[in-house]
Design goal:
Helix content is 75%, strand content 0%. With 187 residues, it is mainly alpha-helical. The protein has one domain. The longest helix has 33 residues. The two termini are 27 Å apart. This is Hemerythrin-like domain-containing protein. It holds the Pfam family Hemerythrin.
């Protein structure tokens, strides 16, 4: 069952991040079962998926720091741990990025194993971090966060918006998230 706030933009953005990580791990598991990345097309696909996620996360963090954090801090004392977590997450992102950039330059089975292991560690860091951020959501009403979410979405790169929409499903995005307050109109 979904929590009452599971359709708030904040949660939807985090769900998109969770989805991307899980799908990359599933893809790497499938590649591992085949004995590694076999063709240059697969290397290009893994690289593109990773670069998209990498851009998404950097955008997510910078928008949160620039737009959301100042607002949150008007009402709550935001835990230092959540800000310091970003350093560890960025280091892990950069580590994975370096491995992904080296795909095809060494034995593929080793590269896949390395990416897979790093993605699992990254997931282990990111998922609890997202949960901790979501706890601070309890101090704000959906319309308050909705306004900030709309400002963030207005400047979000296409990859972030794409993930945001795909995670919800196009119909839910159109008919739920984008629904206008006036019931007879659609945004």
């Amino acid at each position: 069952m979904l929590s009452p706030n599971s359709h708030v933009g904040w949660m939807l953005a985090h769900n998109a991040i969770r989805m991307e990580i899980e799908e990359m791990i599933q893809a790497m598991e499938a590649s591992k079962k085949r004995g590694g990345i076999q063709k240059w097309e697969e290397i290009a696909c893994v690289t593109k998926a990773w670069k998209t996620h990498y851009l998404h996360i950097h955008s997510h963090h910078s928008n949160k720091d620039a737009m959301l954090m100042p607002y949150l801090e008007t009402r709550i004392s935001y835990p230092d741990k959540l800000t310091s977590d970003h350093k560890e997450l960025v280091a892990k992102l950069d580590r994975i990025n370096a491995i992904v950039e080296s795909l095809g330059q060494k034995e593929e089975g080793d590269s896949v194993t390395e990416v897979f292991g790093e993605l699992r560690e990254y997931q282990g860091l990111m998922l609890p971090h997202l949960k901790e951020e979501e706890v601070s959501r309890a101090y704000f009403e959906p319309p308050e966060i909705g306004e900030i979410t709309q400002r963030i979405l207005a400047v979000a790169p296409k990859v972030e918006m794409g993930s945001f929409i795909v995670c919800q499903g196009i119909n839910e995005f159109r008919n739920g998230f984008m629904e206008c307050p006036i019931q007879t109109m659609r945004c």
